[in-house]
C-alpha cells in the first residue's frame, strides 16, 4: 500500500507552533490527513497519552496506526516517506547538516530566550532579554543569506526545513511584539529576514494553516489570565 493510501492523523493544537510546522510539512507534500485538536495544557486525552506516553505532548503523527513524536522528527519522517513534491530537507549532506544545526539553535536557544520576555521583572531585565533576542536574529539573518543563496527562502526557491521551523513561531513573535510594544523583525537591522517573513506568510503552504494573530493574542491573554488565577 502506497503511503498516500494510508490514513494519516495529526494530534495537535491550532495554537501550537510545533503542530503548525507539521501541518505545513504535510501540506508541502500534499498529504491528506485528519487533524485532531488536543488540549496541550490540561485534560490530555487518553489517545494522546497512549500515542506519546513518554513526553505526553503534541504533536503526534499517526501513520499506519504507528505514532511518530517530536515535531522535527516528524518533519524528517514526512520528507522520507512522501518523496513526491518539494523536499523539506536539502539533498546535499552538508546543507542538510547545516539546516539541522539552525533548527536546533532556533528551538533550543533562540525561542527560549524569546519566552524570557514574559518573565522579565523590570525594564532593565526586559532590555537585556531583547538584546539577546536581537543578537539571535542577527545570527539568523546571516544564516538566511548563506542558506538562501540569494533566493527567496532558507530552502532556496521554496520553503524548507529552516523556513518551516522558524516560521512556525511567527505568530507567537507577533503576539510578543504586540504585548511588549516591540518590533523585532526590523527591515533596517535584518532586511533579509524581514523580506523573508513577508514571502513566507503569503506562501500557499503557510497561509491556510497559520492562525490569525488576533486570535492567537486572545488565546495568549486567556492562558495568561488562567495562570494568574491558578497561582
TrEMBL record:
Pfam family for this entry, one: GST_N
GO cellular component: cytosol
Main subcellular location: cytoplasm
Enzyme class: transferase
GO molecular function, one term: glutathione transferase activity
Compartment(s) of residence: Cytoplasm, Cytosol
EC number(s) reported in the record: 2.5.1.18
Reactions catalysed according to its record: RX + glutathione = an S-substituted glutathione + a halide anion + H(+)
Biological process per Gene Ontology, one example term: toxin catabolic process
Keyword Transferase in record: yes
UniProt keyword annotation of Ribosomal protein present: no
Keyword vocabulary terms for this entry: Cytoplasm, Detoxification, Transferase
Entry function: Is involved in the conjugation of reduced glutathione to a wide number of exogenous and endogenous hydrophobic electrophiles.
Protein name (record): Glutathione S-transferase
